[in-house]
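Subgroup meeting minutes
Present: P.N., E.W., G.H.
Scribe: E.W.

1. P.N. recapped why we're keeping a running log of single-chain structure predictions: easier to compare across weeks, and new members can see raw inputs and outputs side by side.
2. G.H. added today's entry (103 aa).
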Amino acid sequence: MGEFEHLVMLAVLRLGPTAYGATIIEEIEKRTGRDVSQAAAYLTLKRLEKKGWLRGRQEEGDEARGYRERRCFEITEEGLERLERSREELASMWEGLAPGLGR
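Output recorded in log:
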């Protein structure tokens, strides 16, 4: 799992089943301080959905959104398992490293 895929999956997990492109981007930007392009986010969402780690669904538009539909995402069981495995792998790699990373 790539770093940005990891961030997108964590954002979806935090936001819950009503997570959609704009809120996912906002969550990542707020928590990391990084600028996220819409193109990168939507390509990653599509890739994660294709891998079976996210499930997308169309949500009807309402008056508040000018009746524009949006695609919402939620993490799948397979996605949760992959995210947990990634967390364990990263924790294992960090284990034993000094806070100064050997400097």
